[in-house]
Amino acid sequence: MKRTRKEPHDADPLVEGVRDARRRQSGHGDDPSVTHRLAQIGVLGWIIVTPMLLAIFLGRWMDRLLGTGIFWTAPLLLLGLVLGGWSAWKWMNAA
Asked: Of 56 and 21, which is predicted with more confidence?
């Protein structure tokens, strides 16, 4: 019976060398540093907080304009939270 697919132990050393070089070049071969992880956490925080802050400012402006108390601020804050959470989820799963 003829094998059409190479087994892992039959791998060509040249191919493995190229794969290792590409992994090192792309950064996938090494574990990210602590500063890289902290930067990711910081970006993640801003991805969540920014839509919430924009929603609060928009809601407060609409409430002052219409004289409605916090009628627009509260639902827009929740909408900003949902949008920020969705954006963070998409960002985390894109990597």
From this structure: 56
